[in-house]
Amino acid sequence: MALLLHPTFFAPIIQYVAFAGHTDVIFERQDNFQKQTYRNRCYIYGANGRQLLTVPIVHSESGIRQKTKDVKIDTSFAWKKIFIKSLESSYRSSPYFEYYEDDLLKVFEKDHIFLLDLNLHAHEVMSECLEMENNISYTKTYEPMPGSLLDLRQLADAKHEPVYEFNSYTQVFDKKHGFIANLSILDLLFNEGTSGLQYLEEHQGLLGK
């Protein structure tokens, strides 16, 4: 059965658990943009604990809800510099940061106009780093209840997500704040490298499979 997901910004680890368990993935591109989701945010592990990073977007002046595919990035903010500086501060001493740093910078060297294109590029880079292969396609219409697909679009919800029982792995600041689960896939990549794929495969049970 094909998997249906929202393309999100350096998605949380649980979403990559889903990727690791399915060959065929369909990305939703006909939905309306919603606030407080991982569409334009991610969480990393900073020196003070869980740290939010956000991609600023251009909001609709008319008040009419925008489709996610039409949402543009607000380039008036220096969000790329903030993001890169935060990653360096958080992960420079992690085992694999320098190994993947150049791959990561590819995402920020390109001037994306639309949020969706940024998210798809980020996923492409993460898949290459994790040596993960999926057959990617896209929705053509919005279906609230797609019966023929495994609908896990709720994994994009940052406000009401459940607590997942992930096994711990070594994190840069875990001696200060303990293990923090389900951060951005970047946290797993920088700390575990390509072993991250095995970690994802070991957690398929979290999705009820």
Automatic annotation (TrEMBL):
UniProt-listed InterPro entries: WbqC
Q: Which domain of life is it from?
A: Bacteria
**What name goes with this protein?**
WbqC family protein
Provide the taxonomic classification: Bacteria, Pseudomonadati, Bacteroidota, Flavobacteriia, Flavobacteriales
